[in-house]
Every structure is written in structure tokens, then in C-alpha cells.
């Protein structure tokens, strides 16, 4: 899919495609409203801007959708001790780094952890959009 394809999708198809990138309904709605996009950079820029304009409840909706992925399954201690699913952008991190990070995050203040997960979720969404649009 390219940006032209994304721009031309009907609303239902756009909702389906974008929800695969981020589980926040508000994020999806705002991304659909932002169409048409000039290019892939405009999509990625809009995605980031929309994400950081959302509220905590929208972020938590995205985290809950992310809970279905294997990432949250790999960290059962975190799941038991946190109100949030474990979200981490793992593509550029070693297994040792990921393990240390999960231990570190267990003791964090909930508001700080919310922000950390939001950063990780933004990175995951960016990756999903890059894969969708076949952007390096």
C-alpha cells in the first residue's frame, strides 16, 4: 500500500487498516480526518502529532489493544504488578536490555510509566505505519 491507496480507502477500510497500526479509536478518527496525505512523511508526522495530542484514556485504549500482542505475554510479572500492558519497541534492543528494562519499569511511578508506555506505543505505531506504507 502507498499513500495514494491510503487516501483513497473508504472510511470502513481506512478504520480497519489504521486500527492495525494503533488501537486508539480517537487516533484512527483523527488520522482519517487528516487525509489526504501528501506523502509517507506527512502520514508519519500526522500520526505523531495526533498521538501526542490524545489524552491518557485514548493512550490506554491503544495499550489495551496492544495487550493482544506477544510482548505483554513475555512479561508476566509486569502484567501482575502494573495497570498497563507491557509495551516496548524491541526492534533495536537486545534480549538482555529488554529484560533489564522490564525489571526497571516494575517499580516506576504510574504516571511516569504511562508516559514511558506512550513513547513506546508511538514507536510501535510508527513502525506499523512504515511497514504498511513500505517506507524504510
Please explain how this structure is put together.
By secondary structure, the protein is mostly helical. The protein has a single domain (3-133), classed as Orthogonal Bundle (UraD-like), CATH 1.10.3330.10. Helix content is 72%, strand content 0%. It contains nine helices and no strands. The two termini are 14 Å apart.
What descriptive keywords fit this protein?
UraD-like, mainly alpha, 9 helices
Low-confidence stretches at least 5 residues in length (pLDDT < 50)? none
Radius of gyration over all CA atoms, rounded: 15 Å
Number of strands: 0
CATH topology: UraD-like
Number of domains: 1
State which percent range the strand residues make up.
under 5%
Short recap of the structure:
By secondary structure, the chain is mostly helical. The chain has helices at 3-8, 11-21, 25-34, 40-53, 56-66, 70-73, 76-81, 95-106, 110-133. The protein is elongated, with a radius of gyration of 15 Å.
